[in-house]
Amino acid sequence: MIKIAMVEDDVQLAELLTEYLKQFNIEVTNFEEPFLALSSLNIYKYDLLILDLTLPGMDGLDVCKEVVSKHKIPIIISSARSDITDKVTALQLGADDYLPKPYDPRELEVRIKTILRRYNQNNEDVKENKKGIFKLDSDKREITKKGQYIKLTAAEYEVLSLLIKREGFIVTREEIFDNSDLLNHDYESSGSLAVIINRIRQKIEDNPKEPKHLQTIRGMGYKFLQ
Predict the structure, then answer these.
(1) Which of 80, 129, 157, 226 fits a disulfide with 152 by CB distance 3.0 to 4.6 angstroms?
(2) Whole domain around residue 46: which residue ranges?
(3) Could you tell me the pTM of the whole model?
């Protein structure tokens, strides 16, 4: 599930967006007060921040500046302020997108997923260069273990590459389907995803019956560890 932090003091708009995005497996936690949002960002991990500019107690541009200085998280500015200076300043501070109000919630949903795809792609180099047993080369669509090429089917590669990119975090089955061009929810009902996971374990684990790298987190999904 995609976890979003939103700073929006318009309660009705926040509720509308929260309900709309829920159907796309996007969980929104809204904060009417920017200081509460900043505190939460220090404690919890969110995939993206949606930030209004006109806020009580603290200007949204100042919030943006503080978030960029302390956290590595993509930011969408959602604001009714039409001054081009605000847009330019927000982007210069490090915001990833600026969505002027009013807008269709469908556009927000598309922008969220577009930015997260780009953000994850930009972070692949970090994962690929990280010291570890497994290396992911997205350009070649190859995964190696201790320098040895792992022969994978297209579906196996998609699943394993996603898990490597999210190393250390639980990835739900829904996230795997949402981020795959090959898998759809028919795999979920047929149990084929479990078959793919087992095939991957046969190829990467020293003992597939006691997996150390590709772990099942019961009731939640899967976690990959080096």
Answers:
(1) 157
(2) 2-122
(3) 0.56
User: Is residue 150 located within the same domain as residue 38?
Assistant: no
Q: How confident is the model at residue 27 (pLDDT cuts 50, 70, 90)?
A: very high
Do residues 118 and 167 share a domain? no
Give the model's confidence band at 131: pLDDT under 50 very low, under 70 low, under 90 confident, else very high: low
Q: What does DSSP say about strands 48-51 and 26-31: parallel, antiparallel, or unpaired?
A: unpaired
What pLDDT score was predicted for residue 125?
Answer: 53
Residues 116 and 8 placed together within one structural domain of the fold: yes
Peptide bond into 34 cis (omega under 30): no
Length of the chain: 226
Strands (E), the chain: 2-7, 26-31, 48-51, 75-79, 97-100, 134-137, 142-145, 148-149, 170-171, 214-217, 221-224
| Closest-CA residue to 37 (of 16, 52, 15, 21) | 52
Question: Within its chain, how far is the Cα of 65 from the centroid?
Answer: 21
